[in-house]
Amino acid sequence: MGSQPHDATPGGAGASVPAETTESAESHHSDVTLRVNGTSRTLTLDHRRALLDVLREDLDLTGAKKGCDHGQCGACTVLVDGRRVNSCLLLAVSLDGREVVTVEGLGDGDGEVHPLQQAFLDRDAFQCGYCTPGQICSALGAVDEAAMGHPSHVTDPGRPSGRPMPLDRDEIRERLSGNLCRCGAYPHIVDAVEDVIR
């Protein structure tokens, strides 16, 4: 048995190899306008880029963290049009014209922090702080969801949806269950949210 010459072409000899691309690089990019923390930003973005990467790498907003990069830890939580989202899962190009708020945009702009940020400080609701920006954005979204009457898994099924939901400790825990804290500061996080909704 003689050795056959190795053909590195996929599919063997004579197989056609697709060209790198016949389209220009611009066809994979679009101009996107985002209103981020109150400022309108127009960026030319690759269609495959996640919002988290655009915030951190292009806009230098590093509050939202890359934890799992699979939407399971909540460290990347930001608010889009007032709703909490995992920014690692959202393609930035799909958010043209939308309002994005990160933890950096929660204060009043004059050095005053948001009441929830202050509650986290007062209650010592963090240790390493890695998850804290996502926890705060998620808590703000959860409070708004409850105010709009969105039920959670632990909401009394007999309670009609669409009416404001009171947030007790069980509701807060359930609504923030998608945000992980490896340091285990959960009781203090719940305390901080309770302080703000009283």
From TrEMBL:
Pfam families per the record? Answer: Fer2, Fer2_2
Pathways involved: Alkaloid degradation; nicotine degradation
Q: What SUPFAM superfamilies does the record tag this protein with?
A: 2Fe-2S ferredoxin-like (SSF54292), CO dehydrogenase ISP C-domain like (SSF47741)
Q: Where is this region: Disordered?
A: 1-35
- Domain 2Fe-2S ferredoxin-type: start-end pairs: 30-106
Molecular function terms in GO for this entry? 2 iron, 2 sulfur cluster binding; metal ion binding; oxidoreductase activity, acting on the aldehyde or oxo group of donors
Does this UniProt record's set of keywords contain Chaperone? no
Q: Which domain of life is it from?
A: Bacteria
Q: Which UniProt keywords apply?
A: 2Fe-2S, Iron, Iron-sulfur, Metal-binding, Oxidoreductase
The transmembrane residues are: none
PANTHER family reported for this sequence: OXIDOREDUCTASE WITH IRON-SULFUR SUBUNIT, OXIDOREDUCTASE, IRON-SULPHUR BINDING SUBUNIT-RELATED-RELATED
Protein name as it appears in the record: Oxidoreductase
Q: Which organism is it from?
A: Streptomyces poonensis
